[in-house]
Amino acid sequence: MTDYTIRLARADETGVVVHHRSAMFLDMGVDPTLVKESEPLVYEWVKSRTASGIYTGFFAVTTDDTPIAGAGLSLLDWIPGPGVPQVTRGYVLNVYTEPEHRHRGLASLLVQRCVTHCRENGISTVSLHASDMGRSVYEKLGFSPTNEMRIRLRL
Fold it and tell me: What total of structural domains would you count in the chain?
């Protein structure tokens, strides 16, 4: 078995985050043309949000420091609610593991690292959107379905 380390993503690794996000969507069956069109926008979003501290990326890396899995955490400004006075929530995204490194618990380790980061920073609510492939991973970590609804507006 390969040894892995979980570490923070560096500013010069934005392209790896984009690759992981694109591969995640392709695995979910999203139209490759749409995925490719989004890449420059994703690159700029990740780069600017990382610089401002809104986005934090984590990678699982091999012994030669090659990122082979990743997850991100975006901080969301949120209105306080009953029993939840915090105005910041965590949102986990971009969870992806390269196919040859799957089924080794890396997604779980990365999401746990995101949750730990939230706990260490006084953020009590952490959300994510689960793919069919990832749902069982997140449920084992304590995530549960909510009643969120959404509408996509044609602009």
Answer: 1
